[in-house]
């Protein structure tokens, strides 16, 4: 028999865990981690340059400098798996003042996620920037590790329910704590990586960058996982202490 306090804690922990997992999954699958706001384009020469950047962005070879410059100039957004730009839906690039803009996206392939970053983006002779390279790889791997830990915790919890046992609860709480730490580390790696990118690739004039809602979702999921972990650990420890007290009382 499980005390009502422990049952309530377990239910709340499950709800928090589900919310955190949904938030993190949405954050991973969307591109609004960081977004740029670019000024309106004027002049035929600028339009031609932007069209060339866009075509290279969509069909050219993967190059950090090329896609970064395109993101800067075309109101780009970039996430863990996606990079997108806002372009006119019609063929008349920025000639119509009220042209409708659409979001065009390219995904980062698995090999591209592990492509080295260079001290001067686009210049392969400048030497590999180890810090930026491993920050990028960590921001790709860590959220997947976080989701894997939560899935593992869910499987253990399901088996514990079938066995009607609270014994694995402490381990499930530890897994949720590790998942929350991995998610927090993902956000930290992403922010550090973007800051280092902006140091080696200066933003053009009148181009502003800001954090997007996908990053905030990931940031919210981290404390939710940690709160679920705290409830699970508390329930496991309290139930264990009461069990030993009852056992000692019966023996006495």
3D architecture notes:
The chain contains seven helices and five strands. The radius of gyration is 24 Å and the shape is elongated. It has 252 residues and is an alpha+beta fold. Residues 248-252 have low confidence and may be disordered. It has helices spanning 4-29, 44-59, 64-73, 110-113, 130-163, 169-200, 213-251; strands spanning 34-37, 77-78, 82-88, 101-107, 208-211. A five-stranded antiparallel sheet has the order 4-3-2-1-5.
Which properties best describe this structure?
alpha+beta; about 250 residues
> What amount of the residues lies in strands?
5-15%
Termini, distance in Å?
22 Å
Estimate the mean pLDDT confidence.
Answer: 83
Order of helices and strands: HEHHEEEHHHEH
Q: Output the structural class.
A: alpha+beta
Rg (CA only):
24 Å
Number of helices: 7
Topology of this protein?
Elements: H1 4-29, E1 34-37, H2 44-59, H3 64-73, E2 77-78, E3 82-88, E4 101-107, H4 110-113, H5 130-163, H6 169-200, E5 208-211, H7 213-251
Antiparallel strand pairs: 1-2, 1-5, 2-3, 3-4
Summary?
With 252 residues, the protein is of the alpha+beta class. Helices cover 64% and strands 10% of the residues.
């Amino acid at each position: 028999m499980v005390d009502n306090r422990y049952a309530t804690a377990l239910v709340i922990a499950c709800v928090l865990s589900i919310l955190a997992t949904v938030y993190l999954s949405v954050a991973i699958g969307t591109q609004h981690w960081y977004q740029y706001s670019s000024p309106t384009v004027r002049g035929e020469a600028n339009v031609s340059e932007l069209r060339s950047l866009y075509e290279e962005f969509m069909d050219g070879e993967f190059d950090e400098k090329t896609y970064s410059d395109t993101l800067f100039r075309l109101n780009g957004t970039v996430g863990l798996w996606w990079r997108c730009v806002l372009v006119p839906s019609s063929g008349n690039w920025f000639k119509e003042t009220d042209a409708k803009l659409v979001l065009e996206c390219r995904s980062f392939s698995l090999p591209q996620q592990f492509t080295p970053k260079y001290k001067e983006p686009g210049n392969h002779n400048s030497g590999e920037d180890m810090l930026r390279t491993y920050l990028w790889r960590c921001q790709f791997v860590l959220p997947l590790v976080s989701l894997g830990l939560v899935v593992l915790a869910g499987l253990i919890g399901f088996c514990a329910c079938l066995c009607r046992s609270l014994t694995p609860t402490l381990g499930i709480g530890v897994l949720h704590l590790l998942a929350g730490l991995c998610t927090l580390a993902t956000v930290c790696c992403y922010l550090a990586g973007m800051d280092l990118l902006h140091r080696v690739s200066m933003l053009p004039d009148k181009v502003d960058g800001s954090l997007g809602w996908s990053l905030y979702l990931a940031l919210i999921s981290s404390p939710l996982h940690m709160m679920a972990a705290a409830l699970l650990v508390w329930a496991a420890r309290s139930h264990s202490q009461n069990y030993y007290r009852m056992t000692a009382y019966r023996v006495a």
